[in-house]
Each structure stands twice: as C-alpha cells, then as structure tokens.
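Design request, tokens follow.
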C-alpha cells in the first residue's frame, strides 16, 4: 500500500529502527495509566483483583498485536489500522476508528498534562495547576517538531529512564515485601498477605470488570508500533521484532509492578490523588527516593505525552491522506513532520485541557474513561480488519506467503473480538467510568452519520 496518496506534499522519513519502535511504544504505554490509575485499580478491584485485571489486559493486548503485526508487515503505512479498517471492514468504519483513536489521544494527552502538573505541585504547591499543564504542553509540542530521527532518539532516552526506574522500583519493592527493607506500618515482612486481606474479590465481579477500562487505557500506546510502520527503515524485520520484545516486556513489567503495589498498598490507601509509586517509596523510607520517583514519573508521563501527540497527528494525517478530510492536512515539512496535523491535534488537546482544569475534581477519571473506551474501539477494528484481510489475501495467495502470521486465524482474532467486547461491557458497571459510554457512543454514531452524509456510503 502507498504511504502517500498525494504528490508534492512532502514525504515521511523512514528513519525508525526496531529499537525506536520498541521505545516509542513503551513511551506511549508507560504513563498515567500505570503510574496513577494503578492505584484506582487496587482501590476498586482489590489487590488480587488488580493484578488479575492487568494480567488479563496484557493477554488481550498481546492478542490484538498478533493481528496488527500481520497487517503492518504486509502493508506498512503511516496511520495503519485506520487504513486497514477502511479497506477490510468499511470506509465508514475506518473514518470512525481514526477519529476515535484521535479522540483517545487528545483526551489522554489532556489527562497526562493534568497528571504531570499534579506531580509538580508536590514541589510547588502554590502554583496554579494550569501553569504547569501549559508548560508541559509546550514542551511536548516542541519535541514533536523535531525530525522523526531526532524525535525517536529523544523518546528512546526518555523511555529508557522510566524502564530502569520501574526496574529499580520492582527490586526495592520486592525487598520490602520480603522484609529485607523496612516498610512503615509493618513490624514483619508484609509478604503477600495484603492480597487477600479483604478477600480475593472484595467488590466481587463488578469491581473486577469495572476497572478493565482503566486497564485498557494503561496499555494504550502499544499499537503505535503499527502506526509508525510507515516511518520505519525495514518494517518487515523491525515490526515483528518490536512486537515480540515490547509486548513481553510490558506485560512482565506491568504485572510485576502491580504485584509489588498490591502487596504493599491496602485498598483504602490506594487512589489517584497521589502516585502509588511515591507512596510506597515514602513508606520504605529511602532518603529523597519519593522525590526522585516523583521526578521520574513526571518525565515518564511527558514521554508518554510525546508519543501520544505523535500518534494523534499521524492518525489525522492518515485521514487526510485517504481523502476523508481536507487535503491541506497532508502537507509534510522538510523534517518529515506533518505540522498541520500536529497543530490541529494540539488544538483538540487544549480544548480538553481547559475543560479538565475547570472541572479538576472529577474530570481525571472521566477523561481516562473516554480515552479507554476510544482505544478499545480502535483495538476492536484491528482483529476484524485482519479477518477481512486474510479472507481477501487467500483468494490469490497462500498463507505461507505471509511473512508474519496471526496464529490460529481466524479463531484467535474472533476470541480477541469477544474479549474486547466484554471489556467494553464492563463500563456500565462503574458509574465513574460511564462517561466512556455517554461520550464515546454518540461520537461514534456522529462519525458514521457525517461520513454517510458527505460520501453517501458506509
């Protein structure tokens, strides 16, 4: 598939390597979803239930990436799954998926900036939250103005910082769990007694399924491997390698991190007001460790925001490249950056950011809910597109001609679809998460209606 449908509008630079893809994906995933929303998961589902929900989310995203891997290797294009949905499901669905994913990152970026500003208030409590949110937004925009090579290198360094920081957290946390480090409030080794202190599922099935949306949001960003395939130097080798290494690493890190947090934080002490990582370090009592971790989390969130603006601008560019919105957005500058698409994405972020500042007490979980719903809809399109692609491919080709195959197709993709639908159904069980349905479903329908009115087809 062509990576650019218009002439004289500039070209993307294929400068990303497999490592760049891996670190871009890690950069997009490890943000507020892990560092802040993990506390919410423990509070709602209980310590054991939180671990189980993150493990389930990891398995689900692994299944999604099987399908995306097959599509991205066969057709490495910028914008990826929007283009695949357009071609193998329906043009209207492709249009809707692109806007849902764009909405996901616009809303997520607003929550990322608010989350980062909340962390900064630990050191500067008298500064209005909008000041730090604005500074961070300008910084992220500036990083995205760099050429894709420099951008990928910068994101590589940022992602490495949080990778090693989480590794240190897991090691120190496990030492505290086994009593090799002191932990405030415990005279003996906490071990894993906290996991069942309130029962395995204190809020029963409702508590478990209600956190799945925030868990999906925590894993959002891993699909950037597919989005960036069109800017990768050797996608047929880089994409499968990045998928294999990134997913395994992320699932291991997320589950180990949740094991440490759930073992050390009781349900009633976990929430989203303060980062649970900072709380754990404060209780371990390592000098300045909490402040250091606060800084690391801050840089991690900014790294995730940088990846998020990259993803949202490329998705908007892909819409223009497919002729679904104005051709003017297709323009790419000499550094390989779609500046017009990035400007429009940033305007959307500012609108969401202003709304979040004026409703700071309640907007955070609502924003996570909307972003989580949007990313699951985008994920849902990936296995459905893979099923359609495989049917079309087999009309003139053999399966062994595919360089990357989704195993057990089409059974595994259909299982993926079913699991994603179950996670969407879980939204209705939690009043604080229902904003995803209230805002997400009407937005989906609006996309279909607009597309039909303009193009006279679904």
């Amino acid at each position: 598939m062509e990576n650019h449908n218009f002439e004289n509008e500039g070209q993307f630079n294929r400068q990303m390597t497999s490592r760049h893809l891996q670190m871009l994906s890690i950069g997009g995933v490890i943000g507020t979803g892990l560092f802040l929303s993990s506390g919410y998961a423990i509070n709602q589902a209980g310590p054991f239930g939180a671990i189980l929900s993150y493990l389930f989310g990891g398995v689900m995203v692994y299944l999604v990436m099987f399908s995306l891997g097959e599509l991205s290797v066969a057709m490495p294009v910028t914008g990826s799954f929007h283009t695949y949905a357009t071609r193998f499901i329906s043009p209207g669905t492709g249009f809707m998926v692109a806007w849902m994913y764009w909405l996901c990152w616009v809303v997520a970026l607003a929550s990322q900036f608010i989350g980062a500003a909340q962390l900064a208030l630990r050191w500067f409590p008298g500064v209005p939250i909008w000041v730090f949110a604005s500074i961070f937004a300008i910084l992220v925009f500036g990083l995205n103005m760099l050429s894709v090579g420099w951008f990928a290198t910068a994101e590589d360094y940022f992602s490495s910082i949080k990778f090693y920081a989480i590794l240190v957290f897991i090691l120190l946390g496990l030492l505290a769990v086994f009593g090799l480090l002191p932990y405030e409030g415990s005279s003996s080794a906490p071990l894993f007694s906290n996991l069942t202190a309130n029962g395995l599922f204190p809020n029963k099935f409702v508590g478990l399924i209600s956190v799945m949306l925030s868990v999906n949001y925590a894993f959002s960003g891993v699909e950037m491997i597919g989005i960036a395939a069109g800017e990768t130097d050797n996608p047929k080798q880089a994409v499968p390698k990045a998928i294999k290494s990134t997913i395994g690493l992320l699932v291991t890190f997320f589950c180990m991190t949740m094991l440490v947090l759930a073992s050390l934080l009781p349900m009633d002490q976990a929430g989203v007001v303060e980062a649970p990582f900072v709380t754990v370090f404060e209780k371990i009592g390592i000098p300045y460790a909490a402040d250091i971790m606060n800084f690391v989390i801050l840089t991690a969130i900014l790294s995730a925001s940088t990846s998020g603006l990259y993803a949202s601008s490329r998705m908007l560019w892909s819409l223009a490249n497919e002729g679904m919105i104005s051709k003017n957005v297709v323009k790419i500058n000499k550094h390989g950056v779609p500046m017009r698409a990035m400007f429009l994405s940033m305007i959307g972020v500012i609108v969401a950011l202003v709304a979040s500042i004026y409703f700071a007490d309640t907007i955070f979980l609502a924003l996570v809910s909307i972003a989580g719903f949007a990313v699951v809809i985008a994920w849902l399109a990936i296995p459905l597109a893979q099923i359609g692609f495989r049917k079309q491919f087999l009309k003139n080709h053999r399966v062994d001609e595919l360089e990357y195959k989704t195993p057990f197709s089409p059974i595994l993709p259909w299982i993926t679809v079913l699991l994603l639908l179950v996670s969407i159904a879980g939204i209705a069980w939690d009043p604080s998460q229902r904003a995803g349905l209230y805002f997400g479903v009407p937005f989906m329908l609006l996309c279909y209606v607009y597309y039909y009115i303009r193009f006279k087809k679904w």
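Comment from the thread starter after seeing the answer: thanks! The chain has a mean pLDDT of 80.
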